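User: Can you help me understand a structure? I only have the sequence.
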Amino acid sequence: MTRRHGTLLIFDEVITGFRWAPGGAQERYGVTPDLSTHAKIIGGGVPGAAICGRAEVMRVFDITGDPFHDRFRRIAHQGTYNATPLTAAAGLACSRHRRPPVSRRGGRTRSAERLRAGLNGVLERRAIKGLAYGESSAFHIFLEAPGEPLPVSRPEDYRWLDAGHAQEHGSWSRARRFRTASACAASSSSPTTAA
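Assistant: Let's start by predicting it. Here is the structure, written out as tokens:
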């Protein structure tokens, strides 16, 4: 659709990159964007980020040797951590260790699914207005203020609520009601039964 309309498809993989799948959301959903942005893990936990994309699109950053092009046509990409050797070394070292076997990646997703279900059970048993939801190993918890109705009741509806609720109630309200976390490989295999 984006090619038909002559626009670029850009994936923000800051959260989904290497978490949804080793190739991020683009691998998980089988969609190749024109550009994607990455941060945090790409630098092995050291400050850093990256823009990745098709060669044709990335050429806008090329230095060609043509003084006019290089000064007026090229897009300058400036950043505090550009070409930092420590970030590159940390990212490379991390990449050698971040690809767990498929069974472990699936295990984190299953752990997060059990955790979300367990948290929802606790909220329901305690009559707390809220919902745990998310994808892959990530989960979010939405808690509504006492006396206010939940704006949605199904986890899949919360995807659009982040933006809609922030517009309606202000971003501070949204920030206080949403919490985000992630299951890790060390998660216990037993389901959540607390409270």
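Now, to help you interpret it: The first strand starts at residue 10 and ends at 12. Residues 102-125 form the longest helix (24 residues). Let me know which part you'd like to focus on.
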